[in-house]
Design a protein that fits this description.
Number of helices: 7
Shape: globular
Structural class: alpha+beta
Order of helices and strands: HEHEEEEHHEHEEEEHH
Radius of gyration: 26 Å
Strand content: 25-35%
Distance between the termini: 31 Å
Number of strands: 10
Strand order of the largest sheet: 1-5-4-3-2
Largest sheet: 5 strands, mixed
Length: 286
């Protein structure tokens, strides 16, 4: 294995041994195969901000992860991409970019907006808040790492559909050792442990990643945990409430089952015993 960066939890799986040893980390042989083209040749920027954003935009640095173009003429484009140039920039800076391009077909003008996020789910949330349908932008293409379990999928969906619920306070992206990102947020929907940490951890060997949510009373406590990591990530109160409700449901089910057993009368005859044949225990495979 090379010492090239794994590009966080969104790294590519190499197509073959040759590309794996070609100094490209987890990127495939041709990272520009799905190069972005918004077809803006006949359009002019609608404002100065869009002009600056379009001039600073380098499609060759991006690998598309998810996209949606409105029909029938593609007047609005929504894109989530990984910016390879960020891996060689300031350490820890976010590498996932969300882009919205809106074309005015009657005036031949366009507006261009982009913003960077540590995780794909927050980039998708930003696009959904700007009018992108949730379903198509939630489909991540390519050979990127995949979520390892249902909890990861559930938390990502929670972020995507959260609207303006989470205020992002800080984030950190680590390319390798550890291969992880975290996003520090404030949850406006609760007063109980409102500081939330969304931690993604990638496993390059398994080509999968996990997402977990932690809850803290204040920002300083959360930052201390991110620096220390000597204790488990504290679960949100809702998780504990769900676990308690599940335990209570199981207890009620068991209790109801016991009460449902018929009581034998004083004159009831004992039921005849039935002996089951003893089955040989299976051998443990070597």
């Amino acid at each position: 294995m090379t010492n090239e960066p794994a590009f966080g939890p969104y790294g590519f799986e190499p197509d073959d041994a040759e590309s794996a040893n070609a100094g490209q980390g987890f990127w495939p042989g041709d990272p520009t195969a799905d190069e972005l083209d918004f077809r803006l040749g006949d359009f002019v920027p609608a404002d100065a901000a869009s002009e600056r954003a379009e001039e600073a935009f380098w499609p060759g640095d991006l690998t598309v992860m998810a996209k949606h173009h409105t029909a029938p003429h593609g007047s609005h484009s929504f894109v989530v991409a990984h910016d390879r140039s960020m891996t060689w920039g300031v350490p820890g800076d976010p590498q996932v970019v969300a882009i919205v391009v809106a074309q005015d077909l009657s005036l031949n003008t366009f507006t261009f907006e982009s913003t960077y996020h540590a995780t794909v789910a927050f980039a998708q949330n930003w696009l959904i808040e700007r009018g992108c349908p949730p379903e198509p932008i939630a489909q991540v293409d390519g050979n990127f790492m995949r979520p390892v379990d249902d909890l990861t999928v559930r938390i990502e969906q929670q972020i995507r559909e959260s609207g303006a619920r989470y205020e992002v306070l800080a984030s950190q992206t680590s390319d390798f050792d550890p291969c992880e990102t975290w996003t520090l947020t404030r949850d406006s929907s609760t007063d109980q442990a409102p500081i939330r940490v969304f931690l993604e951890e990638g496993d390059p060997e398994a080509h999968k990643y996990t997402m977990r949510e932690g809850a803290f009373a204040d920002e300083d406590t959360a930052r201390d945990w991110l620096e220390d990591r000597s204790s488990p990530l504290p679960q949100p109160p809702a998780y504990r409430d769900e676990a308690a409700a599940l335990r209570a449901g199981v207890a009620l089910t068991r209790s109801a089952g016991v009460r449902a057993l018929p009581k034998a009368g004083l004159d009831a005859r004992p039921a005849p015993s039935v002996q089951t044949a003893r089955q040989p225990s299976p051998r443990r495979p070597m």
